[in-house]
Amino acid sequence: MKKDAQLARIEELEAQLEAVTSELEESKTAQIRALADLQNVQRRENENKKNWVTLGIAEFLKPLLARFGELKLGAEHSEDNDIKKAVNNFFKELEKTGLQKIDPKKGTLINPDFHEVLMTEEGKPGTVVKVLETGWRFGETVLTPAKVSAAQHS
User: Which of 19, 100, 104, 149 is the most exposed place for a label (fewest CB within 10 A)?
Assistant: First the structure.
């Protein structure tokens, strides 16, 4: 009888061990899922912060670019080389922060996301003939499209 009781106790302990092992595995799995969820939330939060910063900078730069364009135009027509140099250096510094020119070459296909067609001329249909004004973008955000003349479709 003692042997039967011991076997029953062993079976009971093995069942408890199996239950505890199963609970432990479930807890590990839940912990791994929670950690993965946390990492996903952190990644999305970092992406959102980056997007908000980019959007903020873009919104800041948009109205200023028109004034800077006027400044650059004035410098180009100035006899003062120091002013020309200062304006060019200013634009170079802006470009270091991520501001990029949209300055398509002649023959580039018109892309309405980056080009604003102001007039048409003779040339290969659907392509840029001349850049009338450089455009600007910050990251993936177009601040001002390049103003171009384009060859019209026949």
Answer: 19
Of 139, 152, 147, nearest in space to 50 by CA: 139
The torsion angles phi and psi of 113, rounded to 5 degrees, stand at -75, -25
If one looks up domain 99-154 in CATH, what number appears?
2.30.22.10
CA–CA gap between residue 154 and residue 21 (Å, rounded): 76
Within 8 A by CB and 6+ apart from 58, the residues are: 138, 139, 141, 143
Alpha helices in the chain (DSSP H): 2-76, 81-96
pLDDT at 153 over 80: no
Cα distances from 64 to residues 58, 84, 94, 100, 137, in angstroms, run 10, 18, 12, 15, 13
Q: Are 122 and 151 in contact (CB under 8 A)?
A: yes
Distance CA 5, CA 7 (A): 5
Domain ranges of the chain: 1-97, 99-154
**Residue 119 token pair:** 């007039």
Residue 68 is predicted with a pLDDT of 86
